[in-house]
Amino acid sequence: MTQDFERKIRIYGHMSIVLTFLVALVVMGHTFLIPLAFSFLFAIVFNPFVRFLERFRFPRVLAIVVVLLTFLTLLSGLIWLTALQLGQLMQDLPGIQQRIIDLFNSTLRNLESRLGVELLKTNDWWQNALEKAVPVVTNFVNTTSSVATFLVQVPIYVFLILLYREKFTRFLSAIWKEDGQAQSRTHEIKQVVQSYVSGLFIVILVLAVLNSVGLLILGIKYAIFFGIFSAVLTVIPYLGNFIGGLLPFLVALVTKDSAWYAVGVIAIYGVVQFLEGNFITPNIMGARVSVNPMAALVALIIGGQLLGVAGIILAIPALGIIKTLLAHSNTLWPWVLLIEDRNRERK
Fold first, then answer.
1. Where are the alpha helices (DSSP H) in the chain?
2. For residue 279, what pLDDT is reported?
């Protein structure tokens, strides 16, 4: 074996050990690491606003407090508006469930009369599934204690990260000082995360408005909740829009006199999905993260297996950071070719 090949084998061996350690750390410490990871993402996004206020002679502590309070005020208003309709939905959920069962039974009876085949006895699994769906949704809503803990931890972490941000910069510079690229590499990672998260926020806001307005025009109940909920689910690529559109479709099907309203819901989500995929996301986020669909899908699966929903949300920005780090390695940079969404030669 050549010396170059032996060197690469050693590097890959070391990387395997480090990767195994990191996966074990994430699995065992996820309760602490998930809020911390989200806090770093928010801190990177809020950092330009804090710096902007500091230019106007705001003390750093005051600048951080102003930025956090502004964000939390906007978030609280959004949560309050969503919670109002969510409460109504939870009250009406048993009735909606029964109407879905009745609709399914009537559809089976129509098929029986047309086909001459007895189908109604086969719907027990459907009814059981619907009966189990209500407790699942209820449990999801009732997990407010863990959500509240998360919402308390994250602002505290964000405040401290922004307050001591130079320490993190010096820490990364000390790690990478040997190759003389510490500053540019740190800046590149910060830009990847900042662009992705801030762009994602804007995309979610635009989609929430489009979804809500479309559902309000159709007169669908709980339109604002469904519009915001389905927009937030866009953080899950490829599946989020389908899952988000399924609930308003079912509600329109059982609460409206005509099935055309359900068709209208499909049309609205189809148009919004087309606009999001071809105009909104490309123009707002562009190729900032530049991850191809195959790499994104693998990252989503791994993130979901390790950390559940939080892992799915964190998968793409984490993959963008990994891609940035790999691009600066003489041995590992070919992996960028598998991750990136565009072809390029290494400089």
1. 3-28, 30-55, 60-115, 124-141, 144-163, 165-176, 182-218, 223-232, 240-255, 260-275, 281-284, 293-307, 309-327, 334-339
2. 77
